[in-house]
């Protein structure tokens, strides 16, 4: 069964060097290995493949999400802002926005795009209760 095996998020980009600068310098990810025509990053025990493709940025939904503990969220949002990341806002029932941060039922999230328009998210888990 597929549930017995790890899954790997895969992001297409148009310019691998530009993508590497974003994922390494802006997001702070470290390369975990090379792949044919791409690079693999390791984040929280999960591999993320970034590779060049003519179809880069065509997905208009969240491509990858990073789940942060509540006590790390504000610092990470501030760090990304300092590195020039612009957060997106959109209409969705139940979301309340404050300065680019969405809140919903005890969770907080931000969405932003990489240089190719791939949408990334960082968020907190639902509040225990």
UniProtKB/TrEMBL annotation:
SUPFAM superfamilies assigned: Glyoxalase/Bleomycin resistance protein/Dihydroxybiphenyl dioxygenase
Pfam families documented for this protein: Glyoxalase (PF00903)
Top-level taxon of origin: Bacteria
Residues of the VOC domain: 5-125
UniProt-recorded name of the protein: Glyoxalase
């Amino acid at each position: 069964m597929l549930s017995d095996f790890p899954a790997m998020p895969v992001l297409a980009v148009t310019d691998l060097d530009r993508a590497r600068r974003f994922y390494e310098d802006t997001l702070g990810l470290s390369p975990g290995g090379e792949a044919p025509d791409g690079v693999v990053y390791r984040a929280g025990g999960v591999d993320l493949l970034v590779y060049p493709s003519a179809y880069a940025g065509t997905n208009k939904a969240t491509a990858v999400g990073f789940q942060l503990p509540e006590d790390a969220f504000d610092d990470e949002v501030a760090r990304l802002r300092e590195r020039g990341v612009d957060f997106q806002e959109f209409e969705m029932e139940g979301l309340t926005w404050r300065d680019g941060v969405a809140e919903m039922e005890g969770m907080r999230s931000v969405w932003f795009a990489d240089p190719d328009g791939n949408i990334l998210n960082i968020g907190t888990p639902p509040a225990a209760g």
